[in-house]
Design brief:
The complex is a heterodimer of chains A (481) and B (111). Chain A is an alpha+beta fold and 481 residues long. Chain A is built from 17 helices and 13 strands. In chain A, 56% of the residues lie in helices and 14% in strands. Chain A is elongated, with a radius of gyration of 35 Å. In chain B, a hairpin with a 5-residue loop joins strand 2 and strand 3. The N and C termini of chain B lie far apart (37 Å). Chain B has one domain: Orthogonal Bundle (Arc Repressor Mutant, subunit A). Helices cover 56% and strands 14% of the residues of chain B. Classes of the chains: A alpha+beta (481), B alpha+beta (111).
Chain lengths: 481, 111
Amino acid sequence: MRLEHWLYTIPLRLRSLFRRNRVEQELNEELQYHLDRKTEEFLAQGRSPEDARRAAMRAMDGLELRKEQCRGARGVNFLETLLRDVGFGLRVLRKSPGFTAAAVLTIALGIGANAGIFGLVDTAFLRGLPYHEPERLVHIWTIEADHDVHTPTPAQYQAVRDNSRSFEQIAAAGWADYFYGPDSSVSQDLPGRLVTPNWLTTLGVPPLFGRNFREEEQIAGRDAVVMLSYDCWHSRFRADPGIVEKQIVLNHRPVTIIGVLPQSLGPYNEEEIFAPLVLGSYARQGNVRAGKMRVQIIARLKPGVTLAQARSEAEVIASQFRNPSAEADRSERFVVEDFGEMFRHPGPTPQNAQRGLWMTAVASGVVLLIACANVASLLLARGVKRHREIAVRAALGCTRGRMIRQLLTESALLFFCGGVIAVIITRWGEEIITKTASEMLPGVYLNVGVRVFLVTLAVSFLSALALWNDSGVASDSCEFE
Amino acid sequence: MSKPSDLVQGTLDLLLLKILALQPLNGFAISQRLKQISGDVLQVSDGSLYPALHKLEQQGWIASEWKLSENNRRAKFYSLMRLGRRHLEKEAGNWNRLSAAISHVVKLKEA
């Protein structure tokens, strides 16, 4: 029933839309036929030709109005009116290029600033950690005899890994610095992390391209592979798309690049090199922190397991470490903490930067308001000029609603053009903005994607809506004297 | 002058569907037939006929076709579709129930 209905009516609608002239002509012909027959009928009654014609018209009860009602029945009126208004609006805007350019640029500036700042705020605060189901990720710490919270030792990692049942994955990440000299003249120390092969799987993030580490690559001698951070790949290897399988020399040792990490990795954004963690050799030569070799433990809770359950399990495991044989691995207890929690309360410096970012967001909102005010006065000045046009149209029977709609379409058009230019400019400035912003707050980047585009579009149309009553109708211009 | 609003809401559709159920007709012929069968009781202005026909066509209840009319001119003929026939049956049933109920009420004897 429904299908049959659409099978018949959709072609009809399409015809009304795309063969408009033909449909209009048919409407005229149909009504003309009726008028002619009616006239003949009146003539046969002995009326004069003139009188008969007029009587036939009168019987139609308002020919133009009836035609409009027939058009309304087609069900495509909304779209048709929109298309016609857009066409008309474009002609009007083209007729006053100075006004159009000034308005569009003003709007582009206001919206562009907001698009950029929204993009930053979005990646910094709104999206949360860029991992799969970040609420299941936990971070495990140890409290040692000094009652301070520390990062665990490799032995503690192994114990938690082997004895716990609450976790789907448990990964460790140690620290390392890499000496990188592409040629003898320049050489740099790059910050890096040594990670267990399941590290990315635990975070729930796939590599941007290339492959993940393999299980056997955590064995000494088979660990000559690295993954690059997105920034490292971008800045040191010119975003070379064929980087995978290439060899570089790190710490005087040739290693193969197997993949590149995604742009956003939350707290890991500052490191450039990621290599497999070989637990045996790390325990001997790793970076010493607070007097011991340490690794960060990240774990993913099994579905349905609560933080409290994981905590009590960690308590049991910790009891083995109250009196371990090796003094270095002593632990009073383990702290299992929500992974996102540590980044929600970052240190004082990023906090200031965050506040700065919010303030910039507010400032850019004010810029948009000022832009809107400027465009409003431009529109107002033009509204005065269009007084005559509007009065003539009202006199011709254009309804108030119809006129408002048309003028609204015009200003929406202005804002749409402004919005498009804004997105293009923001996209173009993506790299510069990212660079500036990440100096202020590490890990923040601008990615002009669908979200930014949609928000920009929404801002554009909201601004247009806010402004429509300045475009001339809602003011007294409609009350024609 | 009588306006279509004098007809009970939706009755014009019912009348048009019923007339077209008998045979395909053009707009002018429909207006004549309306006058013929209802006498002067139901007056439908020529003007309101066409918007109503166009609405029925957009619903998929009637279809139109250009054919030669009885005086050898091109005219737009409307005919009832399958969906329209189903709708007509339903609406006619509703109408019968409603009018029976109302005439029953009207005929009640005053005490």
